[in-house]
Amino acid sequence: MTNNLPSDRKPAIIAALAGGWVGDSASLGLHWLYDSARILEVGGESPEFLPPDADYFTVGFGYFAHEGKRSGDISHYGAATGVLTGSLLASKGILDVRDYQRRFRAYFGPGGQWRGFIDNPTRVTLNNLNSIEQEAIERAQSTITTELTDKQKRILVQKVLPYTRRLSGNELAEPVRRAIDLTYHETEIQEAGVYLAETIDQHLLPESGANDMQLPAVSKLPPLVASYCGSDRLMELSEAAVRVTNHNDEAVAWAKCAARLLDHLFRGESMPAALETAKAYAPDQASLARAQSGSSLDAIQAGDTFGRTCYLHEAMPVIFHILTHARSYTEAIRANIHCGGDSCGRAWIIGPAMAAVHGVGGERGIPLGWLTRVTDAPAILRDIETLVNRPWSVSR
């Protein structure tokens, strides 16, 4: 974990996490425009931070998903990464799957903070979390031995759900009793409510994700890798985090490849060495090797060859091509945008990987001016620094 890393690696990891936010934000304006010729026509050689505009999509194939967003805003990928970052911060750098699920549901679900596009893994995950909860309620109700009326059963469910959605285990009993006591003073009814809450809690599943092989499986990994960099639990916990939104074996395999890549870069390995190590975890090593071949960067051709959509078997070869051949953060992000398609999703691996190697500023790092263009940059950077520096570890 990061508190076990040499202090001289922490600035690189902070830069890497910032690189994901910047790359996502820079790509938003032309995200899901698949026509590279149209991208060049609209954005020229510097296509970053264009304001999302439906007019860009009137020529060539594409899907305009970000109406109402402005230059500097993040995509739904960044929003989901922010949810996991918030959970890691709340848990002092530890992955708490239940807390992550709760925050994900609260942020993207009804009444949540997110306003924007909802992708398939997010939509299905929200439905699955509701279904898992309902099945847990039914199982708990069917095993209550206390004699209750149907009305009492309904009221008890209403009483306990606010607590099972944010507390677990031994945390449940006391607040549940207090809540029930507002309506029912009988001890047996209160104990039935506690049983109901604890039984629901025991049957909420950690694997809530969609059977989906798209980029949301890997885009949220950078803060998790930062928290468990160098840990022998990284692969296990990467899988656990991925299955919250993408309960699919192939998605997990690609995520382990991406997590291993970032882990080695965060620890200071060279880009060629990290790519080679990560390749061993990929479900299709041959496509990655082909993507790395050649002597020059041609992301548009890589997109023509491997695909530009959100599916990981298309995106990961494009990512490996760009990381193999790009010489700077700026070149990599621009190449990714020019490739077209799901540039925001790919940016969450490309940006952190390039920034881990090249840092911030100078000829090859994240341009300082780009950092300032990200919406809510001060708050984002503060959270990144807190996650990596781990001030809570001092008191342990």
Automatic annotation (TrEMBL):
TM helices/strands, residue ranges: none
Annotated keywords: Hydrolase, Magnesium, Metal-binding
Cofactor(s) listed: Mg(2+)
UniProt key word Magnesium: yes
Coiled-coil ranges (or none): none
Protein name: ADP-ribosylglycohydrolase
Lineage, broadest ranks: Bacteria, Pseudomonadati, Pseudomonadota, Gammaproteobacteria, Pseudomonadales
Stored Gene3D superfamilies: ADP-ribosylation/Crystallin J1 (1.10.4080.10)
GO molecular function annotations of the record: hydrolase activity; metal ion binding
Residues that coordinate or bind Mg(2+): D342
Cofactor note: Binds 2 magnesium ions per subunit.
Domain of life assignment: Bacteria
